[in-house]
Amino acid sequence: MFELLEVKNLSVSFHTPQGEVEAVRDLSLSLHPGEVLAIVGESGCGKSVLCKSVMKLLPRNARIKAGTILADGTDVTRCSQRDMERLRGRLFSMVLQDPMTALHPAMTIGAQIAEAVRAHQPRMTKMAVRRRVLELMELVGIDMAEERYGHCPFEFSGGMRQRTVMAIALASSPKILLADEPTTALDVTIQAQILDLLRDIQARLGTSAILVTHDLGVVARAADRAAVMYAGKIVEIGTVEDIFYDPRHPYTWGLLRALPAWAEEGQPLYTIPGMPPSLLHPPKGDAFACRNEYALAIDYQEAPPMFQLSDTHFAATWLLDERAPQITPPWRGASYE
């Protein structure tokens, strides 16, 4: 199958006064045409760094140490800034986490969307640009587009601002949409609306999407596949059904146990013990070992390979080795074989 986006053995580091932070470590994943891939994990695991690496929007103290990023056949890691300016918007675009900081407070909504349209179609007439802006506003569900064309961001609610950011990202009909926690600052009802809108737009335009989140509820509602990320690495990847109904990595078990829907009545919500390791000095072996109640001796010595469970499901845990003991996942009495 042709992969619209293929990341191979990617490593990204930040150089800080304290030393080198290995934010992404030997990471590989792919994005199929027309699918939504969710990347889920705790804050600081490298999700946003991965997206910014694809867009080559990393800060000056960051660098791609190794690996390739093939986007529609183009190796992004070898592209110059001028090349990237041509690719951004047309090949891939990004919806940022906080719409209020992504929008200019003194510019009207219509002017900001029009700026994105003209960036890639500079010869378009003023009337054509306006028509395109109104089309985009209607596409993302902004009612009374004509009236709201001249409004400023402070006149919009959080959900409306996020719809505006999505309209800007879609201005050039990108093949890949990167959504970095697009519902974090929104209440639950508006979150659901934005996720449904994202899914609807993706289906109508045939756009592939990477959805970054720390919320498994978002994954269940909007994604086709999910990649669980921890300490700069993918530790489990599969279809949403694989991840929710047959999870195999202890970290995925911990994330699922923390869901309110799976809590026992009258008991506090489960929390994964400990804290993620510092990526200034990544631990030897499996980075999750010190928080893993099922850790084996080898977890502290050697990082596990990615074991294949099916055509769609992979997990990096020594518990899948044929020599490992049988473990029963700690919820609902599900069997682990």
Description:
This protein has one domain (about 5-280, about 300-310): P-loop containing nucleotide triphosphate hydrolases (Rossmann fold), CATH 3.40.50.300. With about 325 residues, it is an alpha/beta fold. An eight-stranded mixed beta sheet has the order 6-7-8-3-9-10-12-11, with helices on both faces. Helix content is about 30%, strand content about 20%. The longest helix is centred in the middle third of the chain and has 18 residues, at about 190-205. The protein has eleven helices and twelve strands. Mean pLDDT is about 90; it is low at about 335. The chain has helices spanning about 45-55, 80-85, 100, 110-120, 125-140, 145-150, 160-170, 190-205, 215-220, 240-245, 250-255; strands at about 5-15, 20-30, 35-40, 60-70, 75, 90-95, 175-180, 210-215, 225-230, 235-240, 305-310, 315. α4 (about 110-120) packs parallel to α7 (about 160-170).
Q: Helical residue percent?
A: 25-40%
CATH topology: Rossmann fold
CATH superfamily: P-loop containing nucleotide triphosphate hydrolases
Uncertain regions spanning at least 5 consecutive residues: 333-337
Strand content: 15-25%
Structural class comes to alpha/beta
Largest β-sheet summary: 8 strands, mixed
- Give the topology string: H per helix, E per strand: EEEHEEHEHHHHHEHEHEEHHEE
How many distinct helices? 11
